[in-house]
Amino acid sequence: MVTQQVEIERKYDVPGSGKPALKLHKLERFTVGEPVEHDMSATYYDTEDLQLARAKVAVRRRRGGSDDGWHVKYQAGSARGEVHHDPLKSAPERIPAALRKLLLGLTLGEELTPVATIDTHRTEYPVLGEDGQYAELCLDTVAARDERAGITRAWTECEAELSRDDLTEKQARKVFEAVEAVLYAAGATPSSSVAKIARALGQDGGDAVRIVTPEHVESTAGEDGRGAGKDADGSSPAGAPEDGERKSSEEFRKAKNKKDKKKSGGKDSGESADPTRKTPKTKDSGKDAATKASDAKHAGEGAQPTGADVLTRMLTRLVGELQAWDFAVRLGAEDSVHQLRVRSRALRSVLQASRDFVAQEVAEDLENRLKLLARVLGDARDQEVARERLETLLQAQSAGLVSTAAAQELREAAEHLGEDAARGVRRELDSPAYLQLLKDLRHLAAGQGFTEEAARHSPKKFARTVLGTALNRVLARAETPVPEDAGEVTVSTMAQVVGERISLPGKDPRQTAVAFEILHETRKAAKSARYVSEALQHAQAKAGKKRVRAAAVAKDYQDDLGVVTDAAVMEEWLARMARSFQRTGRDRYAVGLLHGLELSDLRNGMLEAPEILEDLVEDLRDALPSKD
Questions:
Q1: What are phi and psi of 149, to 5 degrees?
Q2: Where is this region: Disordered (predicted)?
């Protein structure tokens, strides 16, 4: 059996090696029930290069306690959650196939092996209110062995987790405030760690973690000499918190330092060692960890960063996000299919704009495979758009114009088609071809396939070149004329349908189809320019203010162009529903009514399209620099 839950919890570090003296009888507004003790052991698994950790995912086999079994803990943005799976009866120590499948986009089929074993003595205290249990306070004494390094680390931590999901934000805050008052009185501080596995591997913890064996190992650095909390590339590991996640801990320390300073008459004896003290802002203080690590690497070798480094950062980030949203799709997370499609299109956009810097055969091959992936994801996304637009159309109708029964039939049909499309996405994500695509993208992100030209460009020249390429593509699409004889022009199926459905003054069906194709391709080019601009910004590469502004202009026109393309998607969906209702003998009045409205919107949008494209070209040329 698989269960999924969203955690609402706070963690705290407890000083010293002994059990803290918690005065739980002083808990304000709440009482504490009889404690229950457990001895638990958990073995954590990962790939050889710790891909799960980098994705902020932890897989463990827990033995003992109330949740014995296999767990997948994950963090997606600010949301954290767990997936639980009961052990297999025939082989309880074997990772269940369902969990392997869930992780496939992250592991790419690589073997999962033990990386750490964590033994925990847990004391659970139920936090009770007048109408039952509100939370659970867990006190954990932890001994963790890093299986690869042969190091055992120990620490004590507390965790307060809400037991009910019906609490208001105010009630939840009161619970945490009551618990924290007692914990802080015992010397506890908000934890900077989000996972035991990160501490087990020496990736974070600081003074809270003690080295038990071997005794000669320094607790302030990783086994390879890295500072705690950093990967080899200088970035935060998957199990460790980013700067924003350390906020509560740092705010607590700031408040405490301020209080101590006040007591000592305004003098701060430990000022030089204060971890919360602000340092002067340097020229590169806005750079992320990966950028700094890359720059430091080249500085150490006596070389300056190049366009190849920028391209590596862009691709590494996007491939990582693609894999993360793959995991979210497999979890069934909201909006995950859309986000996965966005990342696939962003990667294709970067490849298209970087044609001079990636081997031609490599770029073309990856672009084609990403296009096939986007097509599968696009079908599912079109169903999402149709469901959203259907609801808008139904709510806009006068009362009684569309019967309740007819509206329900349309909603059920939309839901059914959406489920079919989602199954198609899951089949694609499990396919060997898709997994090979992810592997090949990771190889490219590592620089396998870059041309020598990439290393010859400075980061600034590279950024200007690729964003300029993307923006010129927008202009080229928007300025494409509709030919007098459009019979030989290749158009998409959607454009062909539009040409058959509506008539425009002075245009035959084929010319109408070509006009829609131009609009659709312009919108896609505008999106591509936006993706390239955003990828460059994340990579800390400056393409110039005017080009960045031009990319923003292109983005501004996306919505105007999208109204027309979304209307085309909805028109085709309603036409499909009309055919289905006719075959099954259901009432087609509601479908016909909505279809007529959508055809009208589509035609009006196409009539306005030439003016929109002209304005886009004019604004884009005004924003772009006249010359480099």
A1: -90, -15
A2: 217-305
